[in-house]
Amino acid sequence: MSVKLHPYVVFLPVEQKDKILSAIFGSKAGVDVLRFSLKQGIAKNIYQKDLVKSLNYSNKTIIENLKTLTKLGVLTELMEKNEKEGRIIWVKAYQLTDLGKWFALLLAEESELTEHEQAEILESLFRTYVKQVKDLAEELKINRKTLEEIFKQEMKNNP
Asked: How far, CA to CA in Å, does 124 sit from each of 52, 91, 145?
């Protein structure tokens, strides 16, 4: 039996691993916020009013989840300046952080992400992975040149 596997990778801050996993997967609302972001496009801003309209949760539940996900680094909170009927109003908006995008990717079907979004996520994952390997190599006193050679060899190898 041949099964197509998708390479899911998520880097977690060690000190907040349990809190992050619990905030997202311990609450259906947290998962639904990520799914909402996937449906609208992961690069687009998330607005509380849109979540309340689209998801079957109270405003209070949405706010609590947005605050928790922001505190844990899954979302970034922004303030947008809008003009409405000649008045300037400030609106809170949220965006997925790299960590948030990785979690969204765990939930996504490949068809839900554009090729550009998939490439952006892969590049971000690769950059983070390389940084982590570099730091670990320094701790283990592995020469950087050795890692560079391994990378070059693997990039030359045919699939």
From this structure: 30, 28, 23
Residues 98, 65 within the same domain: yes
Structure tokens at 90: 């400030």
Query: Nearest Cα to 73, choosing from 123, 24, 135?
Result: 24
Are both 94 and 132 inside the same structural domain? no
Clarify whether residues 129 and 148 are in a common domain.
yes
Residue 6 lies in a domain: no
Which residues form the domain of 135? 114-159
- Kindly give the confidence (pLDDT) of every residue in the chain, 159 residues in length, as a single tens digit, with 9 standing for 90 and above: 566 655 565 666 777 777 887 878 788 898 899 989 988 888 899 999 999 999 999 999 999 999 999 998 899 999 998 888 889 989 899 999 988 887 887 787 767 677 887 787 778 778 888 888 888 888 889 998 998 898 899 888 766
For residues 23 and 101, membership in a common domain is answered with: yes
Compute the distance between CA of residue 52 and CA of residue 74 in angstroms, rounded to an integer: 19
Q: What's 152's DSSP letter?
A: H
Quick check: 102 and 126 in contact, CB under 8 A? no
User: What angle separates helix 144-156 from helix 115-139, to the nearest 10 degrees?
Assistant: 150
Question: How many separate domains does the chain show?
Answer: 2
